[in-house]
Design goal:
The protein is of the alpha/beta class and about 425 residues long. The protein has two domains: about 160 residues, Aspartate Aminotransferase, domain 1; about 250 residues, Aspartate Aminotransferase, domain 2. Helices cover about 35% and strands about 15% of the residues. It has 15 helices and 14 strands. The strands form three sheets. It has a seven-stranded mixed sheet, sandwiched between helices. α3 packs parallel to α11 and α14 packs across α15. The protein is globular. The two termini are about 30 Å apart. The structure holds (4S)-4,5-diaminopentanoic acid. (4S)-4,5-diaminopentanoic acid (HOZ) binds next to loops. (4S)-4,5-diaminopentanoic acid binds next to loops.
Length: about 425
């Protein structure tokens, strides 16, 4: 007999491509049907059949405080009474912008947009407008959303589908996207040597988290900072995942590096569709209406999304111990994987077990993973009430709502699912 999730999936497939609104949700890489979700609270998520799971997807990162966090929900409910969208500025947008700048005090200005994809696409346009150069460098396996120019050897759902590029992107759109290897300085140097005074920016996930979690090797981010400075190019940190997660100040604070621009998404919106790009004043002032780089949006700075973002960031700002708590819990999970002989990478509260012998430090290492073994582990975890990302190439997110009981249950499931 079919489950309710299976029936809902069948029904969805008639009207939505693949039955999902984002490919990785279809669970194809783990050879089973997806869960359809009914609701979530704290660290737990409930499917349409009433099954309960400890959730390490956490909406792919935003729910750092856990689901339905009371202060966020209350504020959002209250804001709804005042109307859902105006398409005009509100005071709250400035409040959120100032909160973001408190996290990255070396930055001056913020633009609010709706998704990480939009934030990165816009930041790159700004970098090109500012430097008056066309080319950018991205890293193989880094994922920066689904805008045309960035769907080149990208991670996340493209890796799940075993096809790191997308059809439908004309060659010309990606001709200015140069590819380097993450953690490989020579590959970056070679591109600067071959394209003198042509590179507008390097865009990088400071911790790669869309090919599974791959940390930057010692000195790699410093190297990117130096080489961009030397060549008059900008350094853009894509902190859609790491922002407000590795610390309140994100990866730039965590690693002590000051990029020229940062993109935020996920946590910054408290679970609502909100993202941002930030930069120094001289860079950001190329954006219209001050400058000539155009970027706009009816729902940009949406009052409900902004409210959720403000409330979540206020909690993170006022209780910085959250970061040591979530890191500690992630460290316990890391230890459990190691004890089971599984390779694991962890940075703060982001972690990934890798089904491959030996260290994983690069995109080429990631590609050697045994995705069938991952699928078996995933199904084992799910059967034991633990919901992790349905792909070898995504991160596990630990939240402040995960409690000791959740962690113990997860450790037990890891032991039983990795045999
Ligand atoms: N690109 C997201 C993970 N890195 C997937 C988002 C989703 O499916 O919700």
């Amino acid at each position: 007999m079919s489950t309710r999730s299976e029936c809902l999936f069948e029904d969805a497939k008639h009207v939505i491509p693949g039955g999902v609104n984002s490919p990785v949700r279809a669970f194809r890489a783990v050879e089973r049907n997806p869960l359809f979700i009914k609701n979530a609270k704290g660290s737990h998520i409930f499917d349409a059949d009433g099954n309960e799971y400890v959730d390490y997807v956490c909406s792919w990162g935003p729910m750092i405080l856990g689901h339905a966090y009371p202060a966020v929900i209350e504020a959002v409910k209250k804001a709804c009474d005042d109307g859902l969208s105006y398409g005009a500025p509100t005071e709250k947008e400035t409040i959120l912008a100032k909160l973001i700048l408190e996290a990255v005090p070396f930055m001056d200005k913020v633009r609010l947009v709706n998704s990480g994809t939009e934030a990165v696409m816009s930041a790159i346009r700004v970098a090109r407008g500012y430097t008056k150069r066309d080319k950018i460098i991205k890293f193989r396996g880094n994922y920066h959303g689904h805008s045309d120019g960035l769907l080149v050897t990208a991670g996340s759902g493209l890796l799940t589908e075993s096809n790191p590029d997308s059809a439908g992107v004309p060659k010309g759109y990606t001709a200015t996207t140069l590819l380097a290897d993450y953690n490989d300085r020579q590959s970056v140097e070679a591109l600067f040597n071959a394209n003198p005074e042509e590179i507008a920016a390097i865009i990088v996930e400071p911790v790669s988290a869309n090919m599974g979690v791959v940390p930057p090797e010692n000195g790699f981010l410093e190297f990117l900072r130096e080489i961009t400075k030397k060549n008059g190019s900008l350094l853009i940190f894509d902190e859609v995942i790491t922002g407000f997660r590795l610390s309140f100040g994100g990866a730039s604070e965590y690693f002590g590096i000051k990029p020229d621009m940062i993109t935020f998404g996920k946590i910054v919106g408290g679970g609502m569709p909100l993202a941002a790009y930030v930069g120094r004043a001289d860079i950001m002032d190329v954006v219209a209406p001050v400058g000539s780089v155009y970027q706009a949006g009816t729902l940009s700075g949406n009052p409900i999304a902004v409210t959720a973002g403000i409330e979540q960031l206020k909690v993170l700002k006022n209780d910085k111990d959250i970061y040591s708590r979530i890191d500690q819990k992630a460290a316990e999970l890391e230890k459990a994987y190691k004890e089971c002989g599984i390779t694991v990478n962890r940075v703060g509260s982001l972690l990934s077990p890798f089904f491959k012998e030996g260290a994983v430090t690069s995109y080429s290492d990631v590609l050697k993973c045994d995705t069938n073994a991952f699928g078996k582990y995933f199904r084992g975890m799910l059967q034991r009430g633990i919901y992790v990302a349905p792909s070898q190439f995504e991160a596990m997110f630990v939240s402040d709502a995960h409690n000791d009981e959740d962690i113990e249950k997860t450790i037990q499931a890891i032991k039983e699912s990795t045999i």
